[in-house]
Specification:
Layout lengths: L7 H9 L3 E5 L6 H5 L6 E4 L3 H9 L2 H14 L4 E5 L7 H10 L4 E6 L2 H5 L11 E5 L13 H7 L3 H4 L4 H22 L7 H12 L7 H8 L3 H13 L3 E6 L13 E5 L2 H7 L8 H19 L6 E6 L5 E8 L2 E7 L11 H9 L6 E5 L5 E4 L2 E5 L3 H4 L3
Parallel strand pairs: 1-4, 1-5, 2-3, 3-4, 6-8, 10-11, 11-13
Antiparallel strand pairs: 6-7, 8-9, 9-10, 12-13
Helix pairs in contact: 4-5, 7-13, 7-14, 9-13, 11-12
Length: about 400
């Protein structure tokens, strides 16, 4: 059973206007399945070794083949190239064909690092629309308890597995074959042991303020190397960096730093080598990360940015959306019965930032309620509907 993705309508609108697309996303987020729903004229899957070698040897073959297709069909063919990062030199041929108006392309990729490696790589600036496909958002797939979503994540092939054991086995296989082999290989170091230890610690510390020097001491490599390891995870679309909000007219000690979110909570847990019986204090941290991921997906195709706000000597707010000159702060609590005390940091934020007109507490309350002027506590299930309102 196919589960419709929110991004599909935007892709179809672009294709109807004969716009070419680059669809990026981690492995197994459903990129291939999604593009197979389009009325393509040719589908090239570069994961096929024979096909990959053919175009590696002669990328210009694509130009000749598409010229022939266009001439025979008498219209612009729609061409899908899956896993374009495996033959990045094909992007030059794609550019020629787009400039000649010989085809419309739907490209997928799971490693921005491989596309950027080397000064010769052509990222088609101004010629192609870039989109990102994530695991399911709550709006796309609402089945399962909160605990199951925090434990197993939302990768399509995981979320739709009928049993918890099947999900766990599939996650373990994914982490082993993808993170352990492909991502570690991206480290380009002879000794992979430090990177393996880094991956475990990075997953354990996801959602927390990152201290590169502390991690370097624990792993035994320089903080510069730790920074490069995080860049590898970013380039492979495994983590997203969230910067702090540092603009303030009243505070001079706001934290300057970064948090990293793993793209999927199930993958994060397996990479951190955590089991399924988590201590009570872990659930609140996981809910905070879940909310961060949902907010990221809600603003993905807009001009919005996700931040966090923290004064080391005082209040902090888990997430802040900056968009269109306004801000919306979010606090995350594991409680089922939020109180005014839970809203105190949001009250401080609203008083200091006039461009923020309202704030939300995301928690496990069964029903929404007002806690203070312009501050509402809402059930976690309602988050997708209010994220941009």
């Amino acid at each position: 059973m196919y589960i419709e993705r929110i991004i599909e309508n935007e892709l179809r609108k672009a294709v109807s206007k004969q716009k070419s697309i680059m669809l990026l996303g981690p492995r197994q987020t459903g990129k291939t399945t999604l593009l197979q729903r389009f009325p393509y004229d040719r589908f090239l899957n570069l994961a096929n070794p024979d096909l990959r070698q053919r175009y590696e040897k002669r990328p210009a073959l694509l130009i000749a083949e598409i010229h022939d297709m266009e001439a025979q069909a008498g219209k612009l063919p729609l061409v899908v190239i899956d896993e374009i990062q495996k033959v990045p030199s094909l992007l030059d041929a794609v550019q020629v064909l787009i400039d000649e108006k010989k085809a419309v392309f739907l490209l997928t990729g799971s490693s921005a690092r491989k596309l950027r490696r080397g000064s010769h790589v052509n990222l088609l600036p101004g010629r192609i629309l870039a989109f990102r496909l994530d695991p399911f958002s709550r709006k796309e797939y609402a089945k399962g308890s909160l605990q199951n979503q925090l434990l197993y994540g939302a990768l399509p092939f995981i979320a739709t597995e009928p049993s918890e054991e099947a999900r766990e086995q599939a996650l373990r296989s994914y982490v082993t074959t993808y993170l352990e082999e492909e991502v570690r290989a991206e480290a380009l170091v002879r000794n992979l042991s430090p990177f393996g230890r880094f991956l475990e610690l990075a997953a354990s510390e996801a959602g927390s303020l990152i201290n590169l020097r502390k991690l370097s001491q624990e792993i035994g490599v320089s903080h510069v190397t730790i920074g490069s390891y995080f860049q590898i995870l970013e380039d492979c679309l495994i983590v997203e960096r969230i910067e702090s909000l540092t603009r303030s007219s009243t505070r001079k000690k706001l934290t300057r730093g970064s948090k990293y979110l793993f793209f999927d909570l199930g993958v994060r847990r397996l990479a951190a080598q955590e089991g399924r019986r988590l201590p009570r204090e872990s659930w609140g941290k996981l809910l905070e990360q879940w909310v961060g991921l949902e907010l990221l997906r809600a603003i993905r195709q807009s001009s919005g940015h996700l931040r966090f706000w923290r004064d080391p000597d005082g209040p902090e707010v888990d997430w802040v959306i900056e968009q269109d000159g306004g801000m919306i702060p979010f606090e995350v609590k594991w409680t089922e019965a939020p109180t005014v005390q839970d809203a105190r940091h949001l009250q401080t934020f609203l008083s200091e930032y006039p461009e923020a007109q309202k704030g939300f507490i995301i928690c496990r309350t069964p029903h929404a309620l007002s806690l203070a002027p312009h501050i509402r506590a809402i059930p976690w299930q309602e988050l997708p509907g209010i994220a941009l309102r």
